[in-house]
């Protein structure tokens, strides 16, 4: 994508003193990466700990209603972990293209 933007920028011409578009996209990706990776790491850690806690609650639940509640929460925690992994994969794919 950066090369496409560079070609478009080359066709349009860039004013004197402005950095090439590849430098700009690299700088933007570096800033996004500096924000996204720590957030994704913390969220993934919280999701894993929460899943373990819900698994323990599910295993020790005596009441059927508590067991159903823990199971529903565990399903959503797993969905959150899969979503985090998917977003990480998408971000890595975008970063490797540029």
Overall description:
The longest helix is centred in the middle third of the chain and has 40 residues, at 21-60. The chain has one domain. With 98 residues, the chain is mainly alpha-helical. The model has no long low-confidence stretch (mean pLDDT 78). It is built from three helices and no strands. 2% of the residues are buried.
Radius of gyration: 22 Å
Largest sheet: none
The helix-strand sequence is: HHH
Kindly estimate the percentage of residues that lie in beta strands according to DSSP.
under 5%
Mean pLDDT: 78
Structural class: mainly alpha
First-to-last CA distance: 6 Å
Sum up the overall morphology in one term: rod-shaped
User: How would you name the oligomeric state of the polypeptide chains in this document?
Assistant: single chain
Helicity level: over 70%
Number of strands: 0
Number of self-contained structural domains: 1
SS field, number of helical segments: 3
Low-confidence stretches: none
Quick structural summary:
The protein is mainly alpha-helical and 98 residues long.
Question: Which key terms come to mind for this protein?
Answer:
single chain; mainly alpha; 98 residues
Sequence-ordered SSE layout with sheet pairings:
Layout: H1 2-12, H2 21-60, H3 64-97
Helix pairs in contact: 1-2, 2-3
């Amino acid at each position: 994508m950066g090369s496409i933007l560079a070609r478009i920028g080359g066709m349009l011409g860039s004013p004197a003193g402005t950095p090439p578009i590849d430098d700009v996209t690299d700088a933007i990706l570096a800033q996004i990466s500096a924000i996204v990776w720590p957030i994704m790491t913390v969220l993934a850690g919280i999701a894993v700990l929460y899943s373990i806690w819900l698994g323990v609650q599910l295993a020790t639940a005596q009441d059927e209603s508590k067991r159903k509640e823990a199971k529903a929460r565990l399903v959503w925690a797993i969905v959150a972990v899969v979503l985090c992994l998917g977003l990480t994969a998408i971000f890595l794919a975008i970063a490797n293209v540029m």
